[in-house]
Here is the input.
Amino acid sequence: MGTPAKQLPDKVCPACGATFNRKRYRGTLEDSGRYRTRIYCSQSCANTRREVTKSGHHWRAQRHRKDSCQACSATTDLHVHHKDRDHTNNDPSNLMTLCASCHLRLHWREDRAARMD
Here is the structure.
């Protein structure tokens, strides 16, 4: 017979507020080292995000990307441009599909006044 399982203190999940301790997988108790590094009570709580990062907003905007550039009809290297420059505003009316070349040209033209000062 092996040594008895070491009792570790309960933790509180920051996502749902539930208290949790070591899990059992197929009758075997979770490794204590793994338990110490675990923050959330479950995978679903670990995947919840209260704040969306900048890259998360860009990823969401990609869902509205069209099949071709709205300026030159190119079909490769497409970007999603936010017309109001607010990456959190993913309203379809605020998004424009542009190829990399047209996107760079648009920003170059719009930012010219700031560069000239």
